[in-house]
Amino acid sequence: MRTLSLDQSVAMIPNGASLMIGGFMGVGTPERVVDEIVRQNKRDLTVIANDTAAPGKGIGKLVAAKLVRKAIVSHIGLNPETQRQMMAGEMEVELVPQGTLIERIRAGGHGLGGILTQTGIGTPVETGKQRIEAGGKAYLLELALRADFALVQAFLADYLGNLSYALTARNFNPVIAMAADTVIASADNIVPVGVMSPDHVVTPAPVVDYLIAN
User: Fold this and answer.
1) pLDDT tens profile 31-74
2) What is the CA radius of gyration of the chain?
3) HSE value, Cβ hemisphere, 13 Å, CA-based, for 29
4) CA–CA separation, 59 and 31 (whole Å)
5) Are 23 and 172 in contact (CB under 8 A)?
6) Between β-strands 163-164 and 147-158, what pairing exists: parallel, antiparallel or unpaired?
7) What is the pTM for the complete model shown?
Protein backbone atom coordinates (compact mmCIF):
# COMPACT_ATOMS: atom_id res chain seq x y z
CA MET A 1 0.00 0.00 0.00
CA ARG A 2 1.24 3.48 -0.92
CA THR A 3 0.03 6.89 0.20
CA LEU A 4 -0.53 9.37 -2.62
CA SER A 5 -1.80 12.88 -3.08
CA LEU A 6 -5.27 13.32 -4.51
CA ASP A 7 -4.03 14.49 -7.91
CA GLN A 8 -1.52 11.62 -8.15
CA SER A 9 -4.19 9.03 -7.41
CA VAL A 10 -6.52 10.27 -10.14
CA ALA A 11 -3.63 10.71 -12.61
CA MET A 12 -3.30 6.90 -12.60
CA ILE A 13 -6.78 6.53 -14.08
CA PRO A 14 -6.64 6.53 -17.89
CA ASN A 15 -9.37 7.67 -20.24
CA GLY A 16 -11.67 4.76 -20.98
CA ALA A 17 -11.17 3.09 -17.59
CA SER A 18 -13.88 1.18 -15.75
CA LEU A 19 -14.57 2.48 -12.25
CA MET A 20 -16.53 1.00 -9.38
CA ILE A 21 -17.61 3.84 -7.11
CA GLY A 22 -19.07 3.38 -3.65
CA GLY A 23 -22.13 5.18 -2.39
CA PHE A 24 -25.91 5.22 -2.31
CA MET A 25 -27.22 8.54 -3.64
CA GLY A 26 -23.83 10.01 -2.80
CA VAL A 27 -23.66 8.63 0.76
CA GLY A 28 -20.34 6.82 0.90
CA THR A 29 -19.06 8.28 -2.38
CA PRO A 30 -15.50 9.69 -2.38
CA GLU A 31 -16.48 13.25 -3.33
CA ARG A 32 -12.91 14.59 -3.42
CA VAL A 33 -11.91 11.89 -5.89
CA VAL A 34 -14.94 12.58 -8.08
CA ASP A 35 -14.14 16.30 -8.09
CA GLU A 36 -10.55 15.56 -9.11
CA ILE A 37 -11.68 13.27 -11.95
CA VAL A 38 -13.76 16.15 -13.26
CA ARG A 39 -10.82 18.56 -12.87
CA GLN A 40 -8.47 16.22 -14.75
CA ASN A 41 -11.17 15.61 -17.38
CA LYS A 42 -10.94 11.82 -17.45
CA ARG A 43 -13.22 10.76 -20.28
CA ASP A 44 -15.06 7.74 -21.76
CA LEU A 45 -15.46 6.14 -18.34
CA THR A 46 -17.53 3.08 -17.53
CA VAL A 47 -19.02 3.60 -14.07
CA ILE A 48 -20.31 0.66 -12.04
CA ALA A 49 -22.25 1.84 -9.01
CA ASN A 50 -25.59 1.66 -7.27
CA ASP A 51 -26.85 4.84 -8.96
CA THR A 52 -25.76 8.10 -10.57
CA ALA A 53 -26.78 10.21 -7.55
CA ALA A 54 -28.23 13.63 -8.43
CA PRO A 55 -27.07 16.75 -10.28
CA GLY A 56 -24.13 18.30 -8.46
CA LYS A 57 -23.70 15.34 -6.13
CA GLY A 58 -21.40 12.33 -6.28
CA ILE A 59 -21.41 10.50 -9.59
CA GLY A 60 -23.85 13.13 -10.85
CA LYS A 61 -20.84 15.45 -11.28
CA LEU A 62 -19.25 12.99 -13.70
CA VAL A 63 -22.50 12.75 -15.62
CA ALA A 64 -22.89 16.54 -15.82
CA ALA A 65 -19.33 16.84 -17.15
CA LYS A 66 -20.16 14.20 -19.80
CA LEU A 67 -17.29 11.97 -18.71
CA VAL A 68 -19.34 8.76 -18.49
CA ARG A 69 -19.61 6.60 -21.60
CA LYS A 70 -21.51 3.79 -19.89
CA ALA A 71 -23.20 3.42 -16.50
CA ILE A 72 -24.01 0.02 -14.98
CA VAL A 73 -26.39 0.90 -12.15
CA SER A 74 -29.58 -0.15 -10.40
CA HIS A 75 -31.47 3.11 -10.95
CA ILE A 76 -31.19 6.62 -12.42
CA GLY A 77 -34.53 7.99 -11.26
CA LEU A 78 -33.16 10.94 -9.27
CA ASN A 79 -30.76 12.22 -11.92
CA PRO A 80 -32.61 13.83 -14.84
CA GLU A 81 -29.32 14.52 -16.63
CA THR A 82 -28.52 10.81 -16.76
CA GLN A 83 -31.97 10.19 -18.19
CA ARG A 84 -31.52 12.94 -20.77
CA GLN A 85 -28.14 11.62 -21.92
CA MET A 86 -29.47 8.07 -22.11
CA MET A 87 -32.48 9.07 -24.22
CA ALA A 88 -30.28 11.25 -26.45
CA GLY A 89 -27.90 8.35 -27.05
CA GLU A 90 -25.03 10.21 -25.38
CA MET A 91 -24.58 7.61 -22.63
CA GLU A 92 -25.21 3.88 -22.50
CA VAL A 93 -27.09 2.81 -19.37
CA GLU A 94 -27.34 -0.81 -18.26
CA LEU A 95 -29.97 -1.12 -15.54
CA VAL A 96 -29.46 -4.07 -13.20
CA PRO A 97 -31.73 -5.03 -10.28
CA GLN A 98 -30.00 -3.82 -7.12
CA GLY A 99 -29.58 -7.20 -5.45
CA THR A 100 -28.33 -8.73 -8.68
CA LEU A 101 -25.87 -5.88 -9.16
CA ILE A 102 -24.19 -6.22 -5.79
CA GLU A 103 -24.06 -10.01 -6.07
CA ARG A 104 -22.44 -9.78 -9.53
CA ILE A 105 -19.80 -7.50 -7.99
CA ARG A 106 -19.37 -9.84 -5.03
CA ALA A 107 -18.90 -12.75 -7.43
CA GLY A 108 -16.23 -10.78 -9.27
CA GLY A 109 -14.41 -10.15 -6.02
CA HIS A 110 -14.49 -13.80 -4.96
CA GLY A 111 -13.30 -15.34 -8.20
CA LEU A 112 -16.69 -16.66 -9.33
CA GLY A 113 -17.90 -16.60 -12.90
CA GLY A 114 -21.36 -15.35 -12.00
CA ILE A 115 -24.51 -16.01 -9.99
CA LEU A 116 -27.85 -17.73 -10.51
CA THR A 117 -30.95 -15.68 -9.72
CA GLN A 118 -34.67 -15.87 -10.41
CA THR A 119 -34.92 -12.08 -10.52
CA GLY A 120 -35.86 -10.92 -14.00
CA ILE A 121 -37.25 -14.15 -15.39
CA GLY A 122 -40.10 -13.37 -17.77
CA THR A 123 -39.13 -9.69 -18.03
CA PRO A 124 -36.89 -7.68 -20.40
CA VAL A 125 -34.03 -8.34 -17.93
CA GLU A 126 -33.90 -11.89 -19.30
CA THR A 127 -33.12 -10.79 -22.86
CA GLY A 128 -29.85 -12.26 -24.13
CA LYS A 129 -29.13 -14.21 -20.94
CA GLN A 130 -28.76 -17.91 -20.34
CA ARG A 131 -31.52 -19.66 -18.40
CA ILE A 132 -30.39 -22.58 -16.25
CA GLU A 133 -32.54 -25.24 -14.59
CA ALA A 134 -31.37 -26.29 -11.11
CA GLY A 135 -33.28 -28.14 -8.42
CA GLY A 136 -36.44 -28.00 -10.45
CA LYS A 137 -36.35 -24.20 -10.71
CA ALA A 138 -35.34 -21.80 -13.48
CA TYR A 139 -32.59 -19.25 -12.93
CA LEU A 140 -30.83 -16.60 -14.98
CA LEU A 141 -27.06 -16.71 -15.22
CA GLU A 142 -25.74 -13.23 -14.36
CA LEU A 143 -22.05 -12.81 -15.09
CA ALA A 144 -19.61 -11.46 -12.51
CA LEU A 145 -18.52 -7.81 -12.64
CA ARG A 146 -15.01 -6.43 -12.12
CA ALA A 147 -13.44 -3.04 -12.82
CA ASP A 148 -10.06 -1.48 -13.43
CA PHE A 149 -10.37 0.72 -10.34
CA ALA A 150 -12.48 0.81 -7.18
CA LEU A 151 -12.89 4.26 -5.63
CA VAL A 152 -13.68 3.73 -1.95
CA GLN A 153 -14.71 6.18 0.77
CA ALA A 154 -13.97 5.19 4.39
CA PHE A 155 -14.60 6.97 7.66
CA LEU A 156 -11.36 5.73 9.24
CA ALA A 157 -8.07 4.40 7.88
CA ASP A 158 -4.72 3.66 9.45
CA TYR A 159 -1.28 4.09 7.93
CA LEU A 160 -1.31 0.52 6.64
CA GLY A 161 -4.58 1.00 4.74
CA ASN A 162 -7.03 -0.82 6.99
CA LEU A 163 -10.48 0.73 6.50
CA SER A 164 -13.62 1.21 8.56
CA TYR A 165 -16.91 2.79 7.46
CA ALA A 166 -19.57 4.89 9.15
CA LEU A 167 -23.21 3.78 9.22
CA THR A 168 -24.85 3.54 5.78
CA ALA A 169 -21.71 4.81 4.04
CA ARG A 170 -20.61 1.19 4.33
CA ASN A 171 -23.08 0.20 1.54
CA PHE A 172 -21.19 -0.78 -1.63
CA ASN A 173 -17.66 0.18 -0.53
CA PRO A 174 -16.40 -3.08 1.07
CA VAL A 175 -17.73 -5.17 -1.82
CA ILE A 176 -16.25 -3.07 -4.64
CA ALA A 177 -12.90 -3.07 -2.84
CA MET A 178 -12.75 -6.81 -3.56
CA ALA A 179 -13.69 -6.58 -7.23
CA ALA A 180 -11.20 -4.21 -8.87
CA ASP A 181 -7.65 -4.51 -10.12
CA THR A 182 -6.62 -1.34 -8.25
CA VAL A 183 -8.23 0.01 -5.07
CA ILE A 184 -7.92 3.73 -4.26
CA ALA A 185 -9.25 4.67 -0.83
CA SER A 186 -10.09 8.06 0.59
CA ALA A 187 -10.78 8.42 4.32
CA ASP A 188 -12.22 11.14 6.51
CA ASN A 189 -9.67 10.33 9.22
CA ILE A 190 -6.25 8.64 9.06
CA VAL A 191 -4.80 7.36 12.33
CA PRO A 192 -1.61 5.59 13.46
CA VAL A 193 -1.41 1.81 13.33
CA GLY A 194 -2.88 0.32 16.50
CA VAL A 195 -5.58 2.92 17.03
CA MET A 196 -8.15 0.89 15.11
CA SER A 197 -9.39 -2.21 16.86
CA PRO A 198 -9.09 -5.31 14.66
CA ASP A 199 -12.81 -5.88 15.24
CA HIS A 200 -13.55 -2.56 13.56
CA VAL A 201 -11.58 -3.26 10.37
CA VAL A 202 -13.99 -3.96 7.51
CA THR A 203 -11.64 -3.73 4.52
CA PRO A 204 -8.19 -5.12 5.43
CA ALA A 205 -5.01 -3.38 4.32
CA PRO A 206 -3.84 -6.05 1.82
CA VAL A 207 -6.87 -5.21 -0.35
CA VAL A 208 -6.02 -1.49 -0.59
CA ASP A 209 -3.42 -0.37 -3.14
CA TYR A 210 -3.43 3.39 -2.54
CA LEU A 211 -4.56 5.64 0.29
CA ILE A 212 -5.12 9.30 -0.46
CA ALA A 213 -3.36 11.59 2.01
CA ASN A 214 -5.57 14.11 3.77
Assistant:
1) 999 999 999 999 999 999 999 999 999 999 999 999 999 999 99
2) 17
3) 26
4) 8
5) yes
6) antiparallel
7) 0.94
